[in-house]
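FIELD: query
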Amino acid sequence: MIEKAGIDFRITQPHKGFNRRIGEFAGHRISPAGEILDEAQWAQKKGEWLPNEADGEFIQSLMKPCTEPGRYASWIAPPRMGINGQPGEYEYVKIA
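FIELD: result
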């Protein structure tokens, strides 16, 4: 569908041996494309393929708590309706 829309992008799955720690691929370094890599090649590229420290910091920057009744954290979509038909601003949890 993406290509039919004229967008030059393709979603693909990584090779079944990519980043495996158990099973038949354990102990091997395999790229998402299925290439067998040595430790140096893996170390050089793994930051492009797997979440890294910068990704973790970005996620933590998004995770700001929100405890006001009727308000929601920026990373949570507000529900259409509250639990058991309660209004959105209903105080389900009391935080002292």
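FIELD: remark
Residues 1-50 form one domain.
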